Structures are given as C-alpha cells and as structure tokens.
Amino acid sequence: MGDMSNSDFYAKNQRNEGSHAAGFGCTVMELRSLMELRGAEAKHKLQEDYGEVEGLCKRLKTSPTEGLAGVQTDLDKRKEIFGKNLIPPKKPKTFLQLVWEALQDVTLIILEIAAIISLGLSFYHPPGESSGQVCGAAAGGVEDEGESEAGWIEGAAILLSVVCVVLVTAFNDWSKEKQFRGLQSRIEQEQKFQVVRGSQVIQLPVADIVVGDIAQIKYGDLLPADGVLIQGNDLKIDESSLTGESDHVKKSADKDPMLLSGTHVMEGSGRMVVTAVGVNSQTGIIFTLLGASTEEEEKKEKKGKMQDGNLENNQIKVKKQDGAAAMEMQPLKSAEGGEADEKEKKKVSAPKKEKSVLQGKLTKLAVQIGKAGLIMSAITVIILVLYFCIDNFVMNKRPWKQECTPIYVQYFVKFFIIGVTVLVVAVPEGLPLAVTISLAYSVKKMMKDNNLVRHLDACETMGNATAICSDKTGTLTTNRMTAVQCYVGDVHYKKIPDPGVLPPKSLDLLYYAISLNSAYTSKILPPDKDGSLPKQVGNKTECGLLGLVLELKRDYQTIRNQIPEEKLYKVYTFNSVRKSMSTVIKLPDGSFRMYSKGASEIILKKCNQILNEVGEPRAFRPRDKDEMVKKVIEPMACDGLRTICVAYRDFPRNPEPNWDDENNILNDLTAICIVGIEDPVRPEVPDAIQKCQRAGITVRMVTGDNINTARAIAIKCGIIHPGEDFLCIDGKEFNRRIRNEKGEVEQERIDKVWPKLRVLARSSPTDKHTLVKGIIDSTMVDQRQVVAVTGDGTNDGPALKKADVGFAMGIAGTDVAKEASDIILTDDNFSSIVKAVMWGRNVYDSISKFLQFQLTVNVVAVIVAFTGACITQDSPLKAVQMLWVNLIMDTFASLALATEPPTESLLRRKPYGRNKPLISSTMTKNILGHAVYQLVLIFTLLFVGEQMFDIDSGRNAPLHAPPSEHYTIIFNTFVMMQLFNEINARKIHGERNVFDGIFGNPIFCSIVLGTFVVQVIIVQFGGKPFSCHPLSLEQWMWCVFIGLGELVWGQVIASIPNSKLRFLRRAGQLTQKDELPEEDVSEENQEIDHAERELRRGQILWFRGLNRIQTQIEVVNTFKSGTSFQGAGALRRQSSTTSQTQDVTNVSSPSHVSLSNAISSPTSATAPPSTGQC
C-alpha cells in the first residue's frame, strides 16, 4: 500500500492508538494490517495474535452468533474509533468553478474581447474641431455630444449579456451536478445488507455497518466492508475488482478467511465479522490513494500545461467502483470548441459502451451547423469591411489619417461584433443544454415511475429499443411462489393434501429435507397488515417450499433451532451449473444423510429409488422416469407451474465419502416428492406487453425454467399467440442450432434463430449473453437492433453489460446485477420498462421539438444579419438583441420544450432506430416553411416598413445614432414570431392541433408568458443598451398580429404533403459509415450509386457558389472509382429498390463524404431515396 496510506491516516488515527484504553482489544492500524494478509499467512496471524476468529470477536466485543447488542452509544463509539462505512465523495465543483468553465466557450471569449475593444475605443475622441470633415462619412454622427458619450453602452451591454449567458449556463450545470449527487446518494441508500444484531437478522443500510458487526453473506452480494469469515458454505468470491484475477477464490474459515469490500460473492453463503469499514477497508485505501493522486495531478496541472486524459480516467475509475455511474454521462459540447469536444468524447466513451445514438446524431448536427455558421459569419465580416473600405478609400478617395484610425477601427470592431453575433446565433449552444435539461427532467420523473436511472443516456437509448429480453420470475410474474400441487407416495395431488393422508415416513423426510436444505436466510414472516399474505423473505422458491411445510402443519423453525447453520456438515449451494442445492448432516449414529432439491428433470435423472405409498424406497427405473415426466411433470408444467423435486441419500459412517467428488456424491438419490410451485403472472403485464408490441418492440422471454412452464407463462403474458410463427426452444436446442461442428457460435446461424425466437427456456447465463450479442451484432435487418435486457442474478451481469440498456431488479436483484445495469427497476415490474420506453421516446421528441424551433430562428437570424449587413452595412438585429434572442431560443426554449410530459401516443409508433435522421423531412418542411414566412415579413419591414408605419427609415444610420423606431419594430416582430412559433414547435409529426395538452405543461406556459413580459420591458424601457425605441400601442398590435400569423401559416404548412417536396433533406443522420468499424468502411468505400448521385446533385445549398465545387468533387470521385461502379452500383440499386421505404445510406469514397458534409448546409446531411417516404 506504500507510505501514502500511512502518512494519510496517522493524523486521524493518532487518537485511535489509545483505543485499547477505549475498551477494544485492537487498533484500526492493527486491523488494517491484518486485512492486508491473504491465505495461510492471514490464518497464521489470526491464530498467533488473536486466537482464531473467536478471539478476534472477543476483542471486538461481539458475539459470533448473536452479533452486537445494537445499543446506540456502543455503535457511536465504534464509529468514532474505527470510522464510518462511508468513502467521502469527491468535492463538487463550486459555482465559481462552473462559471469559469462556462467562460471557456470560444464564441463567448471572442465576444468579450470584441466588446472590450469596442468599449475602449468608444471613449476616444479624435483631436481638433474638424474631425467630422477630416474623417469623412466615417464619423457620421459623432458630432452630437450627448450621443457620442453613449457610445460605450453597446460594449457594456454585450458584456452584460455575456455575463447573463454565463450565469445561466453555470447555474444549469450546478443544478445538474446537484441532481446527480442526489441520485447517487439514493443509489447508495438503496443498498442494504443483512446483519445480525441482538440475535435478530436485520437489513441495514450499508453506511450503518460498524466494525464488530456480524454480517450474513450470500450468493450475489457485493461485500460492503472487510471482514473475517466465521462460518461459510461452499463460498466462492470474485476478487477481480481488487486483484484483476478473474478466477473465483474459494474462501473457508480454516484456509482463507479474509473477505474484502467491493468483491462479489459468486457462490455459497456464510457469516463474517466486520473488521474494517469506509476509508480503512481495502477498497477505501485504494480510493484514498486515487483521491490523493487526482489532487496531486490537479496541482501539477495548475503548475504545468493541462495533461489530458489521466485525470479523467482516474475519476472514471473512482466513479465506476463507487457505483456512482450517474456522474458519467456529460452533456456534449457544442461544436465551437474542438478540444473540448474531444475531451467530452473521451469522457463519454470511456465508461459507457459507446456514444449513445442521440449523442452521435447531435454531435454530427452541431458540427454541420457550426461550420455553416462560421462560413456565414466570416463572409459577413469580409463583405462589411470590404464595402466600407471601397466606399471610403476607393470611391470617395479619402486618405487614411492617423487621428482617424481609432474611428475606423471602431467601425471594424462593430463589423467584427456583427460577424461574431451571427456566429453566436448560428451555433446552437442550447443543444447540450436542451439534452441535459430533458434528460435530467426525465430521470427525475422516471423515479416516480419506479425507474432508477444509473446512466443518463440509458434513458434516451431506451426510446430506440427494438427488442426486450426479459426474465420470467419476478419481472413477468409476481415472484410470490406458492406450492399448489404435489406428487407424494405414488399419488398426484392437484391441491395440497391434508397431512393425515400422507405416509408419515415420507412426511418426516420431506419436513427435514425442506427445512434444512434451504438457505437459513429464507423465511416466512407474519404479514405486515391484517388480512394480507405472509411476507416471504429470501429466495422465493425456497419460501414456496417452506410454505408447503407450514401448510402440512409443521414448523420449519424448530428443526433449524435444533440443527443451527454451523452444525450443517457440508453444503453444496445452488449455482447455474448444478441447478440444485444439497445439504449434508451428521446423524446421531455418526452416519451421514444428504438432502437435495432442484429442477425436477435434473434431480430425477440422479434418482434410482423413490418412496412408495407407505414411505419405503422402491426401485425407480428409466422407464418409470419417462412415465413420471409424461404423467406428472409435463401436466404440472403445462399449468405454468415450476416443478421441484426433493430427494435424499444416506452415506455410511466409514469410510467417510470424499465430499469433493461431486459427481458421485450427487447420485443414486431417493426421490421423496415432486412439488408444483405457482408463480402467477402480474396482472398488469399482458397489457404492458401488448403496448410494447404495438410500439414495434419484440419481447422475448429468457428463463431458467422448464420449457412447458415457460411456454404456458408466455401465452398468459401475450408474448406468443397460438397460431403464430414463432420459436420456443430450450438452451440445449438453441446451442445446437447456433454452433458449428467445432462448437463455435456463428453469426449466420444465430440470424436464422433470433427473428422468430420468443421463448428461450432452461437457458444458462452464457446463452443469454450469446443471444443478446447475436441480436446486437446482426446485420440481417436494415436497422441495427437496440436491445434491452432484464436480469436479477449475479450470472446475468455479462448480458446486462452487453445490452444497450440493462435493467436490474431493485428488490430481487443481486448487487452484482445492479452494478452491471443502467436502470434499476425499483418495483421489479415489467410495466415499468414500458414507462422507460415512453420517457426515452419523449426525450428524443423533446430534442427534436427544440431543434425544429432553434433551427428556424437560426436560419432566419443568420440570413437577416447577413443580407442586412451586406445591403445596409448594418445588421437590422443588433448584437445585444441577437444575444437576447439567443437566450430565448437556447435557454428558455430548451426549458420549455424539453419538459413536455410524455403521452400514450408515443407508444403508437415504431422505434426511430439508429439510422433515422434527427431532423425528419416533416421537420425540415416546418423549418423552411416558417423561415420563408419570417424572412418575407422581416425584409418587407426592413425595406418598406418606414412607409407602412409612416416613420423615419433606420437604414444607413451613422455610428452612434440613437435607436430608430423602424429597427425596433423589426426586432419586436422577429421576437413575436419566435414566441408563436414556439407553440408550433410543440408538434413535430405534422399534427394539426398545436395546443393539444399545452396546459399540462405549466413550465411551457410560464416561459412563453415570461418571455413576452420581458420583451415588453426591453422594447419600452430598454433604450440605448438594447437599441430600442418605445413603440405605440398600434405598432405593438401589428407586431403581435404578424406573430399570430405564424400559427395560421403553421396550418398552411401542415396541409402541404411531404411527397410534393422531394428536395427536402434530413440532417443529423447517422449513416452506416458512422456505425461501421474502420475496416468495414474501407471495403465498401468504392461503392457509389447512380441514384444517390442524382439525388445529391439536386441539393439546395445555402449559397450557390459551393454547388460547383461539390459537383466537381463528385465528378472526380466518379473517375476515381469508375472501375467498381458498374457491378457494385447495379447490386446496390437492386437492393435499394427492394427495400423502398428504407433510407439509402451514404457510403461513398471517404474524401467525398468529408468534403460534401463539411460544405453542405446543416440541413443537408443525407438525401432520402426518391422512392422512400420523404
């Protein structure tokens, strides 16, 4: 552990060294050094220094069987001396740090610099009286003393609006961080652990465990603290999280009793005494080292240059181990900051599987828009500067005077500010904000729908899900097992018989076999409320069997008290390979008896005797087994029952059998009885599954149960309908179909199985993983499948990790499953998954609504600023006004549109899938349609507005001229149109009623009203800083009237069918190129399709000059790949005509893709096929 750990903790532990005096027989440091030992060395140290585990318990003042007394003063004292079981989280960023981060935005920095220059120059007055004549038109209105003094206002106003934007961004980040921390603490509080206190087994939050507690550990637990094993049954631990070794380590009280926090129990059960908690446990020490190293690195970074990567990796490690994966997904940055973007990508991709679908599409779109915006703003600045220079120095032949330089520079700065403002408006910084708000809002609401989201992007991926592989027990069923049928003494009882009817010998054996051969943690407790059912604690199947014992008027607890857990001679715990559990006890005469229980077909194979009608063993031949399967097991399974066989075997005293030779031990059994256990389908599941099927999601059941039981439950749930073409197979058949002669899994073989597969029974965890991987990797269908998986067992970990979205069960799930999952279902209910789908689709739609609104504003504002600047040398919308519009669009609109609640209608459409563009053709139609309306009106107002309203023209105003009524009307009309268009943006699928459900979203209503009020204040009282002149009531009415026209125009646009507008493009589409790994792309690079090229020729670009370049590039490409294009093209044409409604994906030569994407407009990423739905 190095010196780090010591130096770090000595300060804390100085007082603890006196803890012998405090009454405990060992110090924190002694216990820590004990826990650093392993195996025989640790055992030796325990014997020498402590006198075995019993001696250690004495020193820690605890009883190995009864645990701590649970007195509060004692617990507090232990926490004070040995520490709490908490690892302090990393300090959150302060608000000031977040402000500093928000200030790093490139466009904002450019604006700040420009504003400061403008501010500085506005105080400069050229010397001498004749400055007006000397500097010519350039000094236009500077003579007016009062006005020239107000020149500083614009610079100050820009700075002020930058401050606003920064504060809003920082506040959003801060609240997001706060939400994550709340979520994280909720995840941590969820984790409880079984501890013995005052002889009672209780569930405690992990944070309340103290040194000296006796913890009960079982299969699937994530150990919350370090401890020493007191007694264990067949215990195997996965220590890979600490050692990196994937082999499971056997633990036993006599060989290797050391158990470490953060490791997983893969098999068995036992009890341990807790010896180290929190920062003193082995995981805690590693955390502290990591924490220290991150701090050191931060210091280094402050001194030197930023070192990329290491820091993030460390933090990610810390986060991953902490289960605090909620912190992992960062919102993606907008396209201005290249390096920032790279870092974000690293951060996002390291912890999660891959960049989520939505993020991929958004990044692509942001880059496209950013490039277009940059080109537009550069052209704006160049045109303004050239026009000014040509006008002044060429046309009017003015010399460049020394004293006039600041005035000229001031003009250039003004042009520069206009250019930057165009860029600010063009780049959608609101995108990451909208994504974050939408996701954070959804996650908060999903909590109420019993979905605890651990990875933010899982929520959005869920909206794209096309397949769900669900467990049966507990997810589709209630996980309340009740024994309803049994076969004892050659009689099949259709309901549980009276104990008097059964042979006494069989009854006694059954009573012992069930009571002893089940985990002692499984119990049936009295109900919480009168009249409700008894509470089942622990393994539900075992609870069903214990319930049978109670129904047969016996009490299992009396036997357990006679033979406590430590007296069990040997336990073979249940695991996915054995599919059975066996317990060996020593009888009074010294001989041994083993009780076994497990899946009936597995146990019956190992039986060669069965108890007859008087409870005596008789021979049980293979012929009898077949008959038993036909007459007893299959009828039970067809009723949807789970069949469990209970058996026993006697062993002589000597020679004592070799207990490690499992194959011979678990053989030659005598069957006692077969029990049919019912686990009824949850009442709400059939309806939820029907919703999934309507929403285009295939539900598959993957279970460890018998195939007949699985099929019966699948029919009850509605997963399969009689008469349909589907597959119900078991694990053995599944493997036979998907593996070749060598036993290797082949993708083509899986592709033949999965599309029709609905039920996979008797499946092992490996089968589940193979199926999920097979579906995800399949290239059979046009869209890549997005698979969600539910799991509760430790062995479901790999499948949960592999899936696009892993759901773990909050109640029945093991800690290992929760750790591997993305979303935890707090009520273990399948219908909560449907809610997750609804929220996921809602996130996607919210982002699309926001984009539709934002891009309309972008297109209009950029074109207005650009053309206005080129024709009148001044943007009709001033920098400060543009920043206000930007604030409306970005921050407020993202809040308003991202918080729309989901509706059932979201489940009536198919999933979007990975290749569908973010901006559909309907949205493009809306964006362009509304942009046309707004541009026509604004240009009308700009060029003939002064005649219409009978006011002075605001065009060609000098440098510091007072704000004109004319330009104020333009600005006000522009904002009114955006406000009403925000209502239009609520619908993206061409719906007519844009007001549908508007009052269900109070945030939306208040933002629209709030924006309106602020706009009134700005126009009437904004004055010089906002370049606004107060308007009369009539002028206001006209502005609002033009704005209202947006709603009418929206109806007109909705009436135009998409098929009439073939040229519409979609943007933000992930083409197959983005999905294929590098090597696949290169193979397909040569293919170019005629149809695609024709379509691409018809592109509408933002400015015509680029059209030529693109055509030339295409010609070059055609020559480049002329050889391959006849054959390949013909093939591609055939395939694209057969799948007419599918998107043609853009896989062409790499130079072509990059250049055309870089050059074309943000709304033109990929062309839809001429035959498909446009």
Describe what this molecule looks like in 3D:
The chain has 1174 residues and is an alpha+beta fold. It is built from 43 helices and 26 strands. The strands form 4 sheets. Strands 10, 11, 14, 15, 16, 17, 18, 19 and 20 form a 9-stranded mixed sheet that branches. Strands 8-26-25-24-9-21-23-22 form an 8-stranded mixed sheet, with helices on both faces. Strands 1, 2, 3, 4, 5, 6 and 7 form a 7-stranded antiparallel sheet that branches. It is elongated.
Task: Record keyword descriptors for this entry.
single chain, 1174 residues, alpha+beta, nine-stranded mixed beta sheet, eight-stranded mixed beta sheet, 43 helices, 26 strands, elongated, disordered N terminus, disordered C terminus
Percentage of residues in helical conformation? 40-55%
Distance between the termini: 63 Å
The class by helix and strand makeup works out as alpha+beta
Q: What count of helical segments does DSSP give?
A: 43
- The overall average pLDDT, rounded, is 75
Low-confidence stretches: 1-19, 128-133, 137-148, 304-353, 1071-1109, 1121-1174
How would a crystallographer describe the biggest sheet? Answer: 9 strands, mixed
**Percent of residues in beta strands:** 5-15%
How would you sum up the global shape? Answer: elongated
Number of strands: 26
Task: Work out the radius of gyration.
Answer: 36 Å
